[in-house]
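Limitations

Structures in this collection are predictions, not experimental determinations, and the ligand pose is part of the prediction. Treat each record accordingly. The example that follows, with iron/sulfur cluster as the small molecule, is included so readers can see exactly what is and is not provided: the inputs are given verbatim, and the output is the predicted complex.
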Amino acid sequence: MSAEAIRPQRHLIDACVHCGFCLPACPTYQLSANEAESPRGRIDLMRRHADGVLPLDADFVAHIDSCLGCMACVRACPSGVDYESLIVEARAMIQTSFVRPASQRLVRKAIFAIMPYPRRMRPLVVLGGLAKRMVGSRVADAKPAGSGVAAALASALALLPPRAQKSHPAGGRLYASSGPKRGTVGLMTGCVASVIFSSTQKAAIDVLRAEGFDVLVPGGQGCCGALAEHAGEAGLAGRMAKALVGTLSREKVDTWITTSAGCGSTLKSYSRLLPDDARAAQFSARVLDIHEFLYQQGLRAEYRPLDLRVAYHPACHLANAQGIVDEPLALLRSIPGCEILTPAQAGTCCGSAGIYNLVEPATAERLGVAKAASIAELGADVVAAGNPGCLLQISRYSGPGLESAHPVELLARSLRAVSG
Ligand code: SF4
Ligand code: SF4
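Predicted complex:
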């Protein structure tokens, strides 16, 4: 993709009528009270750059970088402004046309050389967990400063779980339904999620099987490109999307399921990354987040009581980017005995936001601390969220007293209580 091809599209910019209804919903505007840190302000920066009156300089880049990509503004906007495409295109323009300081280039290079590749990520997670256990609270208490290499490393260490998960669902395998068969689905395992959240994927297999679905977990799956797309690495994201579509399109399944909200929003929008690829569009049309799939199909298995107080955090890429709001709550409420709690300011981003908590650690920390405090007030046993990044971020700022789990893990636990 040439640099000329990547820039925010004018008709998307012009859809904004400057009404400002999005401002109260925007976390970075709420923190800064600075118009340039709001959706309207960022769109205006894009407009002035497109008009040739604002250079693509460090100031412009800082305001675009500080956006969480949480899409709270999209939900709040009465004019239907496609802010998601605008921010993705603005970031892609920056990556192709702006030379970042060396420390930022190094951090981003390291992130995209490691995180999308489970074989590289896994040993580092083990080593990071070991280091964390050795230095203990010194890592947990580390305060990130700036956005350089040291701050990114400190954030990465603090976010890692102390122990890597030991077993992973075997790829290249069909897990047969354990009840009357209702269909065949494919489970996408992703990159970071396959290393750090294999327990979520095993739980998804257990629940889907109990609900009557054969679950295919193809081997050789790669990263879906979501992390790269959200950070403006459009070329890398496009190559990853193309490879994944090539691998998965060979399989015969009714639906592709993801347990990661961040991945789901990109997987459903492959036409943005691969605009001329009909096979990618067909693939995207068959992708569903596990919450919406289970909700649409209806639960039939027997779920036994769990005596838990569960605080539900609506992940931005589930609620705002995909409009999946009621489905996770309905699934959690179907577990007898679970009390579902809603934190104050539930719709505000927790500060995870893809690689945001690595490259913008100071803002991410303010949001993470506030989110953890709003959950602590509830006295919950568990915080549930449908996105791996949110679970890591909230755990980091909540400490070890609060369990974190994907809703499907609680469903699986309830199922096990049936047979236990
Ligand atoms: S995506 Fe989130 S942080 Fe960015 S402008 Fe919209 S509301 Fe603000
Ligand atoms: S709510 Fe929509 S139209 Fe109004 S300022 Fe925000 S982005 Fe623009």
